[in-house]
Design goal:
Length: about 220
């Protein structure tokens, strides 16, 4: 009886660890080569990303560890090379360094050219699954962003619900897709059923972008 009690206690301690529990239950949806917990190569990749953020002039700070987010950071002023994010909720607004880099290095200059100054977005990190599956979405690993509206240089807000009649919204999705820094954005134009009021963006990691750009791949 006592032995049963002890092994029960051990089992419940193991289950009590959020990471052990997460590992046991949740299929992953990570970039190629990524694993959880992060491998030494991923940790090094994260360090490289943080060094690049410094060079981009981003004011970032480390976040507490967040399950499934390889390099969790916060950007307190939510400004990514001049592109402001206006997230829902009070935060903390945690994201993976790789998403921060894609926003600052790629999205910001593209959107500035189109006259966009800010994006109204959902929570930067949230535990969610791909609809209809048990697979964690890329929101859960800090690489995805839902855009609900954009704000132009005149301060005018363009809600994504106007996608069909607003050329600026359509240009944004097309331009970001063409950069290769994001996987195909899901929009009211290509997924009316699940994305009629927001644009879903997923950053590719720098290593993924390099692989795509390499000749013969
Ligand atoms: Zn989404």
């Amino acid at each position: 009886m006592q032995r049963l009690l002890v092994s029960g206690l051990i089992a419940s301690c193991l289950l009590a660890s959020p990471l052990a529990e997460a590992r046991r239950r949740q299929p992953l949806n990570m970039p190629p080569g990524w694993v959880w917990p992060p491998s030494p190569a991923m940790i090094e990749e994260g360090r490289g990303c943080l060094r690049r953020l410094e060079r981009l002039g981003l004011r970032w700070q480390r976040s507490e560890a967040v399950p499934w987010v390889a390099t969790p950071i916060q950007v307190p002023d939510l400004s990514f090379a001049g592109l402001r994010l206006l997230p829902r909720g009070k935060g903390p607004h945690v994201l993976d360094c790789q998403l921060a880099e894609a926003l600052a290095a790629v999205a910001a200059p593209e959107l500035r050219e189109l006259g966009v100054t800010a994006l109204r977005v959902g929570a930067l990190h949230r535990r969610s699954r791909i609809r209809g599956t048990r697979i964690l979405s890329r929101h859960a690993i800090g690489l995805a962003l839902d855009v609900w509206a954009i704000i132009d240089a005149e301060g005018e807000e363009h809600p994504v619900t106007r996608y069909a009649s607003d050329p600026l919204l359509r240009s944004i999705a097309a331009r970001l897709r063409a950069t290769g820094a994001f996987r195909r954005p899901l929009t009211p134009g290509n997924d009316r059923r699940h994305h009629r009021d927001h644009i879903h963006l997923e950053a590719r990691t720098a290593a993924e972008r390099a692989r795509r750009a390499a000749p013969g791949t």
